[in-house]
């Protein structure tokens, strides 16, 4: 039985960009969901069965996993249990046509963080993802603020300032800058950006990275004597304070 999301409200606020894995065997439902997530500004990958989903999720490159319970090859709850046994702590939202209390309890006890019965409202799904992401926003030991010269990025408030002046960034621009600043002083290759900021299925020859870096540079460096975002010819990009 095919169960699709209920129509979503286009007025819902856009969330900060996340990398999301959808593990769903219903191809049509998966296509609907991944398309909607991408339109909301997120990177969405799809795995059609439990084994492939488990393999992708183990890489640990995702912010949230959306897992259907009834999957071929390896059922959804087994996927989640196996991930938790491997110490993969990525937040999991379980989607299922099984919506009774006992079903939800089993899902949560298997290691799921939230449970949403089908059919569901897409705006509610986005809100639940936001909550899961917020819980994981500042893991223990990871910096919540990055500083390079007079540029500061606050991961919790999603606020960027330079010389005390706030800079308004789009979700993708924020994620791009966050990644560059996390690796300040290091060369970040286009492949690294494709895998960590964009959907890695993109053609590596695409100029989407150059376009976004150019836009980001115009917001970060324009009007300042020292450029912080630098192009390393033949290698990639680097954020550093040239004064030091």
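Q: What amino acid sequence fits the structure above?
A:
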């Amino acid at each position: 039985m095919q169960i699709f999301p209920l129509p979503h409200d286009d007025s819902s606020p856009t969330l900060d960009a996340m990398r999301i894995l959808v593990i769903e065997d219903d191809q049509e439902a998966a296509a609907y969901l991944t398309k909607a997530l991408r339109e909301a500004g997120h990177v969405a990958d799809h795995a059609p069965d439990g084994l492939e989903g488990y393999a992708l999720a183990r890489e640990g490159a995702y912010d949230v996993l959306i897992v259907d319970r009834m999957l071929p090859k390896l059922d959804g709850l087994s996927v989640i249990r196996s991930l938790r046994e491997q110490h993969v702590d990525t937040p999991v939202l379980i989607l299922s046509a099984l919506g009774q209390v006992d079903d939800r309890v089993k899902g949560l006890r298997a290691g799921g963080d939230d449970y949403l019965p089908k059919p569901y409202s897409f705006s509610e799904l986005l809100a639940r993802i936001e909550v899961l992401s917020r819980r994981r926003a500042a893991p223990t030991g990871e910096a919540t603020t990055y500083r390079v010269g007079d540029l500061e990025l606050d991961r919790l408030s999603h606020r960027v300032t330079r010389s005390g002046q706030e800079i308004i960034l789009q979700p993708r621009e924020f994620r791009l800058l966050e990644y560059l600043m996390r690796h300040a002083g290091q060369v970040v290759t286009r492949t690294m950006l494709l895998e960590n900021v964009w959907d890695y299925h993109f053609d590596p020859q695409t100029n989407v990275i150059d376009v976004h870096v150019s836009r980001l540079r115009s917001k970060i460096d324009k009007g300042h004597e020292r450029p912080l975002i630098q192009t390393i010819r033949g290698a990639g990009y680097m954020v550093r304070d040239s004064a030091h």
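Q: And what stands out in the fold?
A: Residues 7-15 have pLDDT under 50 and may be disordered.
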